[in-house]
Amino acid sequence: EEVDQTYIMIKPDGVQRGLVGEIISRFERKGFKLTGLKLFQCPKELAEEHYKDLQSKPFFPKLIDYITSGPVVCMAWEGVGVVASARKLIGATNPLNAEPGTIRGDLAVQTGRNVVHGSDSPDNGKREIGLWFKEGELCAWAAVQEPWLVE
Ligand code: DAT
Ligand code: MG
């Protein structure tokens, strides 16, 4: 299996509700490696670029208002199968359809307040990390637990 990178973001509701530690913990405990982390007030232009595939959707303006309504926590995570696995940890887009045990299933109620973002493909993982992080903000490091996670 391949080592991938994914962009995970705690949205403004997750920050305001004090869920930052809880959400980071879930990715840490699973065994993924954090390679980038910052609290950030997202400018409108960046939010629009990040969600450009949804530009034509009726909810697009509200989505941009939501994402720029307060600070977000930007994260880059690395690991074997991390993109698909993170999507599973996050759960369905609509929190009412998200399974218990997932972040959205446990912690959220509505699509418009679904607390967290995760890239939907390895290519988008790389694209989004490049969009949200500058060079020098990411750390390549060897985690001592690695041999106990991957044989
Ligand atoms: P996901 O965040 O699960 O990858 P997505 O990429 O389809 O979902 O959409 C991005 C975000 O846009 C999503 O987290 C919340 C918002 N959104 C999606 N569909 C929506 C809808 N039908 N009504 C309101 N907001 C929506
Ligand atoms: Mg998406």
> Outline, from the CA principal axes?
globular
Main beta-sheet annotation:
4 strands, antiparallel
From the alpha carbons, calculate the radius of gyration and give it in angstroms: 15 Å
Helix content: 25-40%
Determine the N-to-C terminus distance.
11 Å
Treating each run of at least 4 consecutive H or I residues as one helix, how many helices?
A: 8
GO molecular function: ATP binding; nucleoside diphosphate kinase activity
Cofactor: Mg(2+)
Keywords: ATP-binding, Kinase, Nucleotide-binding, Transferase
Function: Major role in the synthesis of nucleoside triphosphates other than ATP. The ATP gamma phosphate is transferred to the NDP beta phosphate via a ping-pong mechanism, using a phosphorylated active-site intermediate.
Topology overview:
Elements: E1 3-10, H1 12-16, H2 20-30, E2 33-40, H3 44-50, H4 60-67, E3 72-80, H5 82-90, H6 103-107, E4 116-118, H7 122-132, H8 146-149
Antiparallel strand pairs: 1-3, 1-4, 2-3
The structure holds 2'-deoxyadenosine-5'-diphosphate and magnesium ion.
Residues 54, 59, 63, 93, 111-112, 114, 117, 120 line the site of 2'-deoxyadenosine-5'-diphosphate.
